Inverse folding.
């Protein structure tokens, strides 16, 4: 009945109701843990069509884009029409085809706001325009995540922003938003400053450190002689790239018992708060890791993605339309998804935007149905592992296998950086001495594909044949265990055995990477 009412109620009234719910944390938590998930889905659909109409009317570039694809936005449009007939957008087909002004509402840049950049991991950085008004919706999302996951208001955190400084969205927005919730110090990736800050402000406080996974891991490892991490109340929030379960377990062992290590999912293209890892999301990952049948049913293959929940009233997310999937460069059958930003204040609307990340979308009921089938006592198990059943959020799930700049393909097998990292982390000695690594796809004189991995050791460690063999064994074994496509390809083609090279700390191949927003995992072949 409620979903039907959603279709009938005027849009402004729905918007007022939504603003009322999201304006208070406790109100939001109670609503999202009790609401019929179908109501949220229907509200999301209605907002998606509404945003399409607004973008078509007010954004010159999008209007031209629709004309090119012979779509008349003035015609009555159902959500089915929107899903299957409206063309998707992405960097190549939309962002790079129109200038900044055309992609902004009313055809001009906002007078107030900010310009940030994507990390530039896959090439030249892209600039993104945002105004001040759209920050409010993002703030509400971040505030809810902060309180729901970390119990922020009760803990009175001292927040350390260890994201890379500069024009990148994560570092900018994290500080801007978190300073409205807590006391924040922006140390960027200055490890010594982080250590000095912790010692200066003392052990009695609660600290929340935010940063990219590789930096966080190296910080904890490299400075354990200067500070006893277990003496401080430290929780972590990471993002920008996926992390294996082993990475989370490994990092937690270096912190005090009970420390929280939470991942978030975002993109400069949309915003930093698309999805967040709730305790239930992490529980689903662990169950899927333990149960192959559940893993296959949920993800369609024997791989374990990151699992997030997202608010469908902020983002309408659906699988890429099969009608257009052939137009997606390098998709190679990957499951991708499209995001419509449901913020009427957005300076540059994003309609059916494809990040070209590989992932699956699940309604709340669909994922729960799979859990009930393979783990009938999942709620009891969740409670046993410390989860609070009454606080389960009735939100849909977004499962991410890899970022668009996070894969190399060999004989049809996609290999992700986190899979290489997982193989390294399984060997404690290797985990301790590894600083960074890069991957490269090359071809020999006979055009046979070669899989190269370059590993930069930490300061004080030198390459050796014995060490090289340890790395090769750990990585190759790990890949065959967690990547069935690679295992199958390697069983038939032993030339896929990685060519592994160890490099001293500071090697030219890794020069300049420290200044990047994210780890650069790929070598551009000449």
């Amino acid at each position: 009945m409620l979903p039907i009412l959603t279709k009938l109620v005027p849009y402004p009234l729905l918007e007022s109701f939504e603003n009322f719910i999201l304006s208070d944390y406790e109100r939001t938590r109670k609503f999202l843990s009790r609401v019929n998930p179908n109501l949220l889905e229907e509200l999301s659909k209605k907002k998606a069509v509404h945003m399409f109409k607004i973008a078509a009317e007010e954004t010159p570039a999008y209007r031209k884009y629709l004309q090119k694809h012979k779509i008349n936005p003035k015609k009555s449009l159902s959500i089915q029409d929107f899903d299957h007939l409206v063309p998707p957008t992405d960097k190549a087909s939309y962002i790079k085809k129109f200038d900044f002004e055309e992609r902004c509402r009313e055809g001009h840049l906002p007078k107030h706001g900010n310009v940030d950049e994507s990390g530039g991991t896959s090439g030249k950085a892209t600039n993104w325009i945002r105004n001040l008004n759209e920050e409010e919706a993002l703030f509400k999302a971040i505030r809810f995540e902060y309180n729901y996951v970390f119990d922020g208001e009760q803990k009175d955190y001292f927040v350390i922003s260890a994201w890379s400084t500069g024009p990148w969205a994560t570092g900018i927005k994290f500080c801007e938003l978190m300073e409205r919730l807590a006391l924040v110090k922006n140390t960027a990736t200055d490890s010594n400053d982080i250590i000095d800050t912790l010692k200066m402000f003392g052990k009695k406080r609660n600290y929340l450190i935010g940063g990219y996974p590789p930096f966080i891991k190296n910080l904890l490892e490299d400075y354990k002689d200067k500070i006893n991490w277990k003496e401080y109340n430290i929780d972590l929030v990471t993002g920008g790239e996926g992390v294996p379960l082993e990475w989370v377990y490994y990092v937690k062992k270096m912190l005090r018992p009970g420390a929280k290590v939470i991942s978030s999912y975002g993109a400069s293209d949309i915003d930093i708060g698309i999805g967040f890892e709730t305790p239930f999301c992490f529980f689903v990952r662990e169950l899927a890791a333990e149960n192959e049948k559940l893993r296959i049913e949920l993800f369609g293959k024997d791989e374990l993605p990151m699992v997030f929940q997202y608010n469908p009233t902020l983002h309408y997310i659906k699988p890429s339309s099969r009608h257009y999937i052939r137009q997606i460069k390098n998709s190679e059958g990957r499951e991708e998804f499209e995001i419509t930003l449901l913020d009427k204040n957005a300076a540059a609307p994003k309609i059916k935007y494809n990040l070209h990340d590989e992932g699956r979308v699940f309604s709340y009921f669909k994922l729960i149905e799979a859990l009930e089938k393979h783990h009938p006592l999942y709620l009891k198990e969740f409670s046993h592992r410390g989860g609070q059943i009454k606080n389960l959020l009735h939100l849909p799930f977004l499962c991410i296998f890899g970022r668009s700049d996070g894969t190399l393909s060999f004989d049809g097998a996609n290999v992700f950086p986190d899979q290489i990292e997982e193989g390294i982390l399984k060997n404690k000695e290797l985990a301790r001495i590894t600083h960074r690594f890069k991957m490269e796809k090359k071809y020999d004189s006979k055009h046979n594909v070669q899989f190269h991995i370059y590993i930069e050791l930490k300061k004080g460690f030198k390459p050796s044949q014995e060490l090289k063999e340890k790395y090769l064994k750990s990585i190759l074994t790990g890949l065959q265990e967690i990547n069935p496509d690679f295992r199958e390809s390697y069983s038939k083609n032993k030339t896929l055995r990685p060519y592994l090279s160890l490099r001293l700390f500071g090697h030219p191949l890794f020069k300049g990477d420290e200044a990047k927003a994210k780890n650069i995992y790929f070598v551009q072949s000449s």
Summary: Confidence is low (pLDDT under 50) at residues 323-332. The first strand starts at residue 113 and ends at 117. The chain has three domains: 1-113+291-404, 133-277, 408-515.
